[in-house]
């Protein structure tokens, strides 16, 4: 038994639990199981059923250390009749069993009809090959003792646990042989999607192609399920009585230890940070004062935390202030820090202040709290701050250093493939934060589990459109543009752009294709030729072609995940903006090509037969959940802003879903055609979603992953949305209400596999945390210290000398048309982040292409310059 086999068996344990009745193989496992363990498993089945018995069996199995038990387990499965499960474990391929979930789901819904119409004695001989021999005996025994309906229920229970891939077809043949009217419902030939079910209220509801059900029961060892984000503050700021588990989380920090607090969403982790701050400030003797800095990465979180801390501490007589990038230019940071007890900061503010000397040292603070501290890596501002801290610590500075507290949902495991590597990864995070304690709830788990509700998790695999004429037309247009671009490359002759034009048409509509486009554009920006007129013409043409390819690529992504109509509207908006900005010959040609196909595209987009199967499944989920609970509150996660807008339009225009009154939440930045939300707009959306009961669904991008305070939701839908294990825990944690559910809806089986791997990594992370919590504190501190020394050596060796500025004046050109804009000697920096040109007379009638836009740039810089060369339409903002 290798470590990998043990790990795989643990990871795929759900399949074993859903399939195996362990009492049928206990006799074969006698060499490895003690008598008391056998009795315990048998009692578990009698009291709680086969699934709980299988969980206990698996627990005992994974604890075995004797040689040969894994082979013995496989032999026992085979001898007992579990050939399908045995085959799956031997190959670690559970696809055959997974495909049965469709029929299990159907049989569960048809169970009332099954037990009232089926005589189990009649069909048992025909389906016996799909069951375990003991199961057949139990069915007959129950029929004799309790009646046919009870026997039919037992037969359903056994079929739901069958690992034989042919059982749905075998059952169909048995029903037809008996001429049972139930066979009309059991339409396995067409798949469960076409089954007509009499008891369903909505005749249009259909089952998905594959549905894999995971119910994640709270486990005593799962101590870091999800973050109670920094925003989860109590709404009542009168003195609150902390729960016992909150006191447990706060205790190491209150004892003065640098601590990472890892706690699940909804537990009141922000309240824990308030407890720590209050205790810290009150412990100082007369004549001395503490000073706390709380870091929040996102601006909405910064605003929330400033409000929370102000309301809590000002009633206690402490002064609270906040500084963010939006306010740093209008306030004196040094005075704010000096005159307040608690300062809420976005971390880059402190990085800038340490660099320019506004704040001479971290020793001005006595406590630093890092929200979402798992970000402390690489060149993140959190890590830059801690570089300063560790350099002083390891350099033997006499200055006192502040206590460090980290708050997180999940410490993560990085690329770790086993528990040892996960432990090393977590140690590195602890070293970065100089912490030797990881605080999780261990003594008060029961209380925690009464407060924190872990959502049921569903994986839903759906199909793409069988035919997609829209995609064919757009792909053809893209191939035509590629041909035009290739002709430009051929014109270059021996001069190439690094062999960039290696295109595979199968990549249309993917992020990989967009990355290639960006790469070509970057190469064009620095491309040079002796003939400058030719260089300008070629680069301008390539930029135009790449821009159109990028928009078409975006449209294909929208088409894949939303309606054709939404993708077409996206294209029409783009070409409308192109016309408004002005035409050159290339733009006219590309626009004409699109307009020639426009009528056909519009006809296709309104054809009902082109409905997106993904949306049909999404509609089914929403209808079903709101039918079960009309008060359901939903967060729908998607990958892009364009999809946010498209799905909002779809819901509003869908008569079955318009009652949801969707709202949207996106980030603040601008990408392509999408303009981000301002901070006031984000706050307005969240306040409305929190207070307006008619607003039942929030559609959002990754901006809602962490930190932002979102009202309790009982339904989280991940629409083609998967990240790493930290993102999985954070998005799942948005479902905070009791009985909440989390769906992953995807047409990509790889995404389901990735999410399963995230679930395995979460277990691995929790196990690694438990290991570290058993270490002697002195051993842990020494481990952390050695990592810090090693990392400092690497950091020092990587330090590069400041480059000597080239005093020779150079020209600044437009990266698209290569027109002259100004000389580098005329550029000035303002506030170390803005640029201006002085004197203004040196500017020429061209614009430097930093960003493409359909309308003039409106950045509110200290000084701006907008000069336009005809038919270029790129803008420089100083």
How does this model look, in words?
By secondary structure, this protein is α/β, with parallel strands linked by helices. It folds into 6 domains: 3-96, Death Domain, Fas, CATH 1.10.533.10; 100-213, Death Domain, Fas; 244-451, P-loop containing nucleotide triphosphate hydrolases (Rossmann fold); 469-610, phosphoenolpyruvate carboxylase, domain 3 (Up-down Bundle), CATH 1.20.1320.30; 612-746, Rossmann fold; 811-875, no CATH class. The chain has 31 helices and 20 strands. A 7-stranded mixed β-sheet has the order 1-9-14-13-10-12-11, sandwiched between helices. The chain has a 7-stranded parallel β-sheet with strand order 4-5-3-6-7-2-8, with helices on both faces. Helix 5 (69-80) runs antiparallel to helix 6, helix 8 runs antiparallel to helix 11 (148-160) and helix 19 (419-432) crosses helix 31 (777-798).
Explain briefly what this protein structure is.
The protein is of the alpha/beta class and 878 residues long.
Strand-residue fraction?
A: 5-15%
Give the uncertain stretches in residue-range form. 190-237, 840-871, 873-878
Radius of gyration, CA atoms, in whole angstroms: 31 Å
Count the E strands.
20
The CATH homologous superfamily of the largest domain is named P-loop containing nucleotide triphosphate hydrolases
What is the rounded distance between the termini? 64 Å
Helix content: 40-55%
Number of domains: 6
CATH fold-level topology of the largest domain: Rossmann fold
What's the average pLDDT?
80
* Alpha-beta content class: alpha/beta
CATH class of the largest domain: Alpha Beta
**Outline type:** globular
Strand order of the largest sheet: 1-9-14-13-10-12-11
Biggest sheet, in brief? Answer: 7 strands, mixed
């Amino acid at each position: 038994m290798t470590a990998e086999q043990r790990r795989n068996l643990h990871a795929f344990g759900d399949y074993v639990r859903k399939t195996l009745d362990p009492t049928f193989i206990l006799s074969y496992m006698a060499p490895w199981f003690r008598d008391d363990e056998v009795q315990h498993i048998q009692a578990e089945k009698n009291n709680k059923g086969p699934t709980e018995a299988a969980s206990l069996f698996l627990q005992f199995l994974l604890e075995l250390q004797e040689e040969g038990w894994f082979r013995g387990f496989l032999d026992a499965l085979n001898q007992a009749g579990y050939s399908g499960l045995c085959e799956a474990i031997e190959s670690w391929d559970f696809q055959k069993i997974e495909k049965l979930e469709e029929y299990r789901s159907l049989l569960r819904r048809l169970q009332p009809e099954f037990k009232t119409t089926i005589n189990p004695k009649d069909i048992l001989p025909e389906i016996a090959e799909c069951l375990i021999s003991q199961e057949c005996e139990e069915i007959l025994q129950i029929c004799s003792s309790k009646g046919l309906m009870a026997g039919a229920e037992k037969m359903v229970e056994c079929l739901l646990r069958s690992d034989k891939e042919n059982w749905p077809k075998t059952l169909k043949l048995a029903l037809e042989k008996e001429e049972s009217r139930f066979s009309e419902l059991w339409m396995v030939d067409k798949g469960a999607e076409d089954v007509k079910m009499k008891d369903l209220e909505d005749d249009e509801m259909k089952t998905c192609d594959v549905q894999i059900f995971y119910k994640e029961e709270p486990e005593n060892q799962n101590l870091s399920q999800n973050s109670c984000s920094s925003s989860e503050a109590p709404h009542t700021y009168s003195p609150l009585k902390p729960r016992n588990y909150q006191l447990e989380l706060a205790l190491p920090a209150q004892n003065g230890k640098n601590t990472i607090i890892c706690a699940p969403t909804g537990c009141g982790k922000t309240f824990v940070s308030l407890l720590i701050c209050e205790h810290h400030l009150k412990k100082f003797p007369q004549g001395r004062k503490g000073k706390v800095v709380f870091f929040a990465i996102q601006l909405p979180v910064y605003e929330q935390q400033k409000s929370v801390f102000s309301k809590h501490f000002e009633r206690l007589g402490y002064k609270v202030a906040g500084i963010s990038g939006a306010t740093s230019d209008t306030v004196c940071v040094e005075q704010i820090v000096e005159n307040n007890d608690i300062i809420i900061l976005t971390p880059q503010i402190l990085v800038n202040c340490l660099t320019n000397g506004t704040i001479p040292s971290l020793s001005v603070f006595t406590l630093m709290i890092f929200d979402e501290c798992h970000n402390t890596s690489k060149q993140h501002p959190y890590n830059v701050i801690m570089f300063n801290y560790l350099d002083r610590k390891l350099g033997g500075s006499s200055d006192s250093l502040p206590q460090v507290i980290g708050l997180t949902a999940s410490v993560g495991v990085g690329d770790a493939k086993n528990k040892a590597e996960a432990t090393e990864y977590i140690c590195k995070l602890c070293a970065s934060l100089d912490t030797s304690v990881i605080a999780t709830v261990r003594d008060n788990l029961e209380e925690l589990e009464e407060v924190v509700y872990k959502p049921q998790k569903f994986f839903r695999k759906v199909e793409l459109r069988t035919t997609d004429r829209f995609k064919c037309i757009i792909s053809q247009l893209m191939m035509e543009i590629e041909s035009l671009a290739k002709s430009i490359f051929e014109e270059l002759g021996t001069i190439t752009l690094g062999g960039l034009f290696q295109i595979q048409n199968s990549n249309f509509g993917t992020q990989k294709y967009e990355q290639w486009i960006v790469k070509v554009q970057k190469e064009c920006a620095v491309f040079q030729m002796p003939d400058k007129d030719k260089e300008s013409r070629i680069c301008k043409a390539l930029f135009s072609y790449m821009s159109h390819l990028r928009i078409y690529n975006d449209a294909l992504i929208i088409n894949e995940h939303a309606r054709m109509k939404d993708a077409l509207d996206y294209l029409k908006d783009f070409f409308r903006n192109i016309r408004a900005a002005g035409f050159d010959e290339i733009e006219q040609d590309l626009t004409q090509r699109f307009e020639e196909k426009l009528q056909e595209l519009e006809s296709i987009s309104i054809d009902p037969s082109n409905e997106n199967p993904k949306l049909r499944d999404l509609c089914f989920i929403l209808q079903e959940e709101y039918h079960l609970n009309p008060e359901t509150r939903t967060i729908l996660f998607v990958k892009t802003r364009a999809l946010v807008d498209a799905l909002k339009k779809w819901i509003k225009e869908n008569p079955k879903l318009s009652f949801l009154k969707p709202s949207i939440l996106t980030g603040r930045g601008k990408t392509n055609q999408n303009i981000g939300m301002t901070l006031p707009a984000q706050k307005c959306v969240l306040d409305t979603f929190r207070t307006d009961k008619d607003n039942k669904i929030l559609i959002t991008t990754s901006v809602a992953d962490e930190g932002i305070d979102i009202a309790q939701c009982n339904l989280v839908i991940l629409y083609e949305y998967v990240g790493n294990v930290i993102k999985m825990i954070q998005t799942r944690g948005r479902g905070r209400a009791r009985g909440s559910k989390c769906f992953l809806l995807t047409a990509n089986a790889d995404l389901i596999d990735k999410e399963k791997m995230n679930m395995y990594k979460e277990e691995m992370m929790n196990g690694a945390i438990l290991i570290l919590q058993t270490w002697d504190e002195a051993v842990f501190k020494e481990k952390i210290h050695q990592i810090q020394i090693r990392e400092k050596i690497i950091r020092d060796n990587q330090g590069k000398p400041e480059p000597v500025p080239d005093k020779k004046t150079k020209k600044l050109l437009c990266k698209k048309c290569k027109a002259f804009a100004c000389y580098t000697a005329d550029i000035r920096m303002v506030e170390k982040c803005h640029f201006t040109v002085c004197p203004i007379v040196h500017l020429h009638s061209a614009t430097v292409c930093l960003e493409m836009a359909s309308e003039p740039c409106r950045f509110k810089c200290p000084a701006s310059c907008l000069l336009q060369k005809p038919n270029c339409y790129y803008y420089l903002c100083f």
